[in-house]
Structure formats: structure tokens, C-alpha cells
Amino acid sequence: MSCLLDRLQEEIDTLDALSLRRRRQVAETACAPQQTLTLAGAAAPRTMLGFSSNDYLGLAAHPALAKAWAEGAALYGTGSGGSHLILGHSRAHEQLEERLAEWMSPFIPQARSLFFCTGYMANLAVLSALGGSDAVIFSESLNHASLIDGARLAKARVERYPHCDVAALDAQLSSCDAPVKIIVSDAVFSMDGNIAPVAGLLALAERHDAWLVIDDAHGFGVLGATGRGVPEALGLCSERLVLVGTLGKAAGVSGAFVAAHRTVIDYLVQRARPYIFTTAAPPAVAHALLASLALIGGEEGAQRRAQLLARIAQLRRGLKAVLPADGSAWLADSPTAIQPLIVGDNARAMRIMAQLDGHGLRVGAIRPPTVPAGTARLRIALSASHGEGDVARLVDALGEALSRPAKEAA
Ligand SMILES: *Cc1c(COP(=O)(O)O)cnc(C)c1O
After folding, report:
1. Pocket residues for ligand 1 (CB within 6 Å)?
2. Which of 141, 98, 108, 99 is nearest to 211 (CA)?
3. Could you tell me which CATH number the domain at 15-50+299-409 has?
4. CATH 3.90.1150.10 in the chain, residue ranges
5. In ligand 1, which atom is closest to the CA atom of 54?
6. How many CA atoms, within 13 angstroms, populate the side-chain half-sphere of residue 69?
7. What's the pLDDT at 248?
8. Distance from the alpha carbon of residue 403 to the mean position of ligand 1, in angstroms
9. Where in the chain is the domain with CATH 3.40.640.10?
């Protein structure tokens, strides 16, 4: 036994030596820009201004949603009691699926939706169910880990295509004679913030008779006039579209959904193992999500999206004015809430993160292999709940950190 433990410990020690060991912090208060955190190894908690949550609309601690959650628990209790096919599918789940299907009906003919416990499971479900042994999955090279794992779980062959390269994908599809083709892409890339060429991908799907699976984890709630995400922002409509949206990010609760033509949803209910063999999420979660959708689609959602856009513009304007003239740091070309500042090597990213920490600011540093070598970055995530003063503080602190030489003695 001790030998088995030693092997694990050696690997952890190696990560430690490479400064790649991940450590968790403990959040003492609700998700918000100002949050009290106990960092790994620290004796006392600190209140920090954070720029790394996925709570893009600031709904994760919204009183109306906490109230709806409590109301849901009073109505349905805490546990669902079973899987969706065996007793666990409540009226709240059913209402949520109906509402989401209505929401997505402008983009998918005869749309239905299916609610999942997490986005990770939704992606495993879609790819493993649609990607049988007669299929080929064409996977965008910067796809999220859950799509990569979904493709691994599928019996289909997997071909990667280069990032956002519609022409290369067209050539790959042309030389494929599998009866089922599946194109799969993130809508908004999580480490870069850019939006996939979804209209181009959909044109290919139509031309090559393929499914287009779009993971809109970072677009749902945020993009489009009423927050319905990338299909609304780009005006898409097709029965080939299989949309995955997550409900733990901008929607501020938990879970995910798949929206697709009703035949696809019927098929998933019969065949998707990550849907079938798991306990349904608490009905109270679905009840809270109904309240979240009402907020997202209403006036408050529109106001929050406008605030978020104002903060994005402020950050980009502010940072462009303080970027070093030697080009040693640059801002990714992103129109979304994810605003990466690329600084080059790992040590510099870690140094800037430490300098921000000294100012009470928390920004995640992302290093290879999560991103390509030489593009270590600070991944700034903005929220509608950030104030103008919050973003100004970040810009000032980054301006100061960037004014120091890129190569500095450690
Ligand atoms: C967060 C995320 C997921 C996973 O969603 P969860 O609900 O957190 O499991 C899937 N895809 C992308 C692109 C994500 O960013």
C-alpha cells in the first residue's frame, strides 16, 4: 500500500517543484466582487476584489434567486429522490424545460430542452449519445475539457480541426464519408474570450449534413438582446443545431440544458447514460432557475448586460492606455466578459498576480499547458456587479505592474 501512496505523492511533489500544484481557497462569503477568502496556507481570511468568477451578471447571490430557492425547497423538499426516469423528474424540472424550449424555439425548429445536473454531464451526454461507432466527431482544437471527455466517451472517431478555421474544417468534412458527422465547438472560448465562427460552422453543417453541437457556457445569459446567447446574437436557426447552455455561470444557480429538435431530445432521454444513471438535481434548483430566467429575459437582465458591456469597454480602454510600448504584453481581441491580458512567460504572470495581490486584487494567472507556451496570461473576468471604481482600481494596479521590465530578477 505504501508504495502506491508513494507513487501518488511523488507526482504531487513534482507538481509542487514546478509551481504547478493547484490549491483551493475557501470562500467565507457569497460570490461577489468583494469577497472574503481564506487562501491556501493563510492563517486569516482577507477581503479581496476579485476578477475571476463566472458570475457574469452578478446573479449568484441575488436575493430574488435565494428566495426562489427557499420557496422551491418548501414546495418540493431538498432531494429529488431519484433519477429523471425513475421518480426524480418534478413539476419544477418540467416547467424549466418547457421555458427553455420556448426560449430556444426561435433558433431551433420544434425545439425541446433537457435539464442536466452540470454542463460537464450535458456535454458527456450529447457527444456519447450522438457519437456512435458510425460517427466522426470534428472537434475544435480549443474546446473545453468536458467536450474533449465527451468525445473520448463516444465510440465515434475524433478529428480535431484548427482553432476557428472554417476552411480547414470544410476540407476535413469533404474527405469524410461517415454516415454521421458531428461538429462540436465552444461558442465563447474560455481562455481567450473570442467567439467561434458559429454562422460559418452552421453553413458547413448544412452543406455536409452534420450536427452542430455548440457549448454556449459563457454566452448564455450574456450575449443576445434578451440573453439567449450566441444563437440570438448571431441570428441562427437550424434543426441541426444542438445547443448546450450552462446555468451555473451567468444564470447564477447550477445545472445545464441541452436544446435541440424534439427528436434529438427524445433520443437523449432514451440513450444518454450521463442523463439516465444519475439522481435528478434538487427540484428547488429548477425552481430557482425559473426565477433566474425571468430576471435574465426581463428589464433587469438587459440593464445588467448593459453594465457588463460598459465595464468591458472601460477595461479595454484603460488597459490599452497602459500597455507597454515594447509589445511585451497585449490584450486579447475579445468582445466578451473574458478579457485575457497576455504577458508571455510564466514567471511574469505569477509576478504580476502577486503584485495585484498586494493591492487586494485577485486575478487568475493561466499558464501552459492550459494555454500555448509563451502566452501565459492574466484571465480577467468581468461581471455586471463590478463597479466603475472596481475596474479603475484594476487598471491602475496593472498599469503599475506592467511598467516594470518584463524580465525581472525573481
Ligand atoms: C464551465 C464550462 C462547462 C461545464 O459546465 P458546469 O456546469 O460547470 O459543469 C462546459 N463547457 C464550458 C465551455 C465551460 O466553460
Report:
1. 118-120, 123, 144, 146, 186, 190, 215, 217-218, 246, 248, 256
2. 108
3. 3.90.1150.10
4. 15-50+299-409
5. 1
6. 15
7. 98
8. 35
9. 63-297
The class that CATH gives domain 63-297 is alpha beta
Hey, whose CA ends up nearest to atom 14 of ligand 1?
A: 217
Ligand 1 pocket, mutate which of 249, 257, 285, 292 (most atoms under 8 A from CB): 249
pLDDT recorded at residue 410 = 44
Query: CB–CB of 202/240 below 8 Å?
Result: yes
270/273 Cα distance (integer angstroms): 8
Verdict on whether the full-model pTM lies above 0.85:
yes
For the stretch 68-107, what's the b/e string if a residue is b when 16 or more beta carbons lie within 10 angstroms of its beta carbon?
bbeebbeebeeebeeebeeebbbebbeebbebbbebbeeb
pLDDT at 22: 86
Q: What is the mean pLDDT of each run of 10 residues along the chain (410 residues)?
A: 91 89 92 94 93 98 98 98 97 98 98 98 98 98 97 98 98 97 98 97 98 98 98 97 98 98 98 98 98 98 98 98 93 97 92 95 92 93 98 97 74
